[in-house]
Specification:
Largest sheet: 7 strands, parallel
CATH superfamily of the largest domain: SPOUT methyltransferase, trefoil knot domain
Helix content: 25-40%
Shape: elongated
Number of domains: 2
Low-confidence stretches: none
Oligomer: single chain
Number of helices: 6
Strand order of the largest sheet: 7-6-5-10-8-11-9
CATH class of the largest domain: Alpha Beta
Distance between the termini: 24 Å
Order of helices and strands: EHEEEEHEHEHEEEHEH
Number of strands: 11
Length: 230
């Protein structure tokens, strides 16, 4: 099923230029054709095209249904990699697997000090449509590690920090958590001070296995494990 993205479908029955062009110019859809939309807010729509305008194709909504609710909320906070392609790959795959929120954090050992979510948002939208989902994850801009901890101090989610440490427990042992936040560090890992700060904010040290993983791999493994029993 081909899905188009229309975030304001309920208020504005018009596809934007990108989606209109793909619908009319590439797929050669005609007036009266029925296509399917998602709004990124959990809604699927079946609509009928009213015109063939390649920049603002109008439609009438024929039906609407809500995406099934997830059993577990997954929030991954990750330090962006120096190579943009690697973190973009993570975002794409995480959306396909299932993630509700992604935050980008700047740590002591971060390779990237500046990061824009504009490009990864486009990748997330594409992955949402490709995996036949209707909910776009929240994508938060880059913030300092301390700021992230402060902003989530009163969050009632089960909190984890992935860290290779003798006291870390296997993440799979926390499979009963229904609302999770997990911190994934940079290639140089979190500093001891940052781990201590996280623990003081009620983050549990967890292990993702015995191997040393790249940042984007660790983030994806965490996403996969937290979705295993979803």
């Amino acid at each position: 099923m081909q899905l188009f993205y229309a975030p304001d479908a309920l208020d504005n029955n018009v596809l934007d230029q990108t989606n209109s062009q793909h619908c009319i110019k590439v797929l050669r859809k005609k007036i009266g054709d029925v296509v399917h939309l998602v709004d990124g807010k959990g809604n699927f729509f079946e609509v009928e095209l009213k015109n063939e305008h390649p920049k603002k194709c109008e439609f009438n909504i024929l039906s609407q249904r809500k995406e099934s609710a997830r059993n577990r909320r997954v929030h991954i906070a990750v330090a962006p990699t120096k190579n943009n392609n690697r973190i973009e790959w993570f975002v794409e795959k995480a959306v396909e697997i299932g993630v509700d929120e992604i935050s980008f954090i700047k740590t002591n050992n971060s390779e990237r000090k500046h990061f824009s979510v504009d490009r990864v948002e486009k990748i997330a939208i594409s992955a949402m449509k490709q995996s036949l989902k209707a909910t776009l994850p929240i994508l938060n801009p880059l913030v300092d590690f301390e700021t992230f901890l402060s902003e989530n101090q009163k969050n009632d989610a089960e909190k984890f920090v992935a860290h290779l440490h003798v006291d870390s427990t296997d993440l799979t042992k926390h499979s009963d958590a229904t609302n999770c936040i997990i911190l994934i560090g940079p290639e140089g890992d979190f500093s001891d001070q940052e781990v201590q700060q996280a623990v003081e904010q009620n983050f549990h040290m967890v292990s993702l296995g015995n191997s040393r993983l790249r940042t984007e791999t660790a983030a994806l493994v965490a996403c996969t494990l937290l979705n295993a029993n979803e």
